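pinned: reference chain
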Amino acid sequence: MKLIARCFKASIVCMLVVLFARTEDRAADLDSYAQPSKAAQPSNTTTPCAASENHQFDFWVGDWDAFDFDNPITKVARTRVDRILNGCVLREDYEGADGHEGQSFSIYDQSRKVWHQSWVTNRGELLIIEGKFQENAMVLTGVDHAKGGRLVRGTWKPENGGVRETAVTSTDGGRTWKPWFDLVFRRTAIGVNNADASAADDRKIVAALDTQYQAAVKENDTATMGRILADDFALVTGSGKIYSKADLLAEARSGRVHYEHQDDTDQSVRVWGDTAVVTALLSEKGTDDGKPFDEAIWFSDTYVRTPTGWLYVFGQASLSLPRAPQ
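pinned: its structure tokens
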């Protein structure tokens, strides 16, 4: 199944997606629906930046108004965060009310298993920080050479439907830390002029999270699957059977399904306000407990946008499609 996650304001997202059944005999089997497809990617092609780690910072994607934590009334900046370069890089465009402007570029370095961010400004500033996603927060640290070599540590965390970014500094090698700034990002109110841009952002977020979930299922990554699936998740198959989040995680833990390929075709993403619908046709081929399957199905997925991000709440699968005459 496909799953898509990450935004900050509670609202519902319905997703129609196509998945693949394993055999006519297995069309109602949980295995045929517990494993997602690899969206719009050929099976023999490696999708860059599709691993779950590459999308740990997706909760920051969006169009934001920034406020000091101690003064939530006065806006101090407008910040836009989007994904560029095939979704591999997170780009921040910061416009401060005081004329301070900057951009940051964040990427997950698979070779070193760390996040890297480079920050540059219209005042000639450069700051390079690196770190990891831990305890539901992105934590990046580096040396601020423009300030005498002090250490800087920034933390981004989903909070109350938005994002909170805090920064602290140290001049004694990290033994003690002093507050630098504390910002709260709240989503920019959608108006006539930016409604289309917001819908486009939603489509990108849904597509990116969908890829993340599919990659997790393919690798039997139950930690990522568990984070994206809602606790009350339900899947209804073409035969009328119902499966829960626990059922999907148990299927992944069993490790008995192996794919030769998973291909989505005819996929589209449509957005109406806070509702998004994705449609696709899934074909898959592989083995289930040593038994081969090679089939196709239509699938529909429903997602909800919560304060902590998109959650996969409901899925519905068709029976295996009849094969075309040879």
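why pinned: Helices lie at 31-34, 195-218, 222-228, 245-254. The chain has two domains: 11-55+194-317, 61-184.
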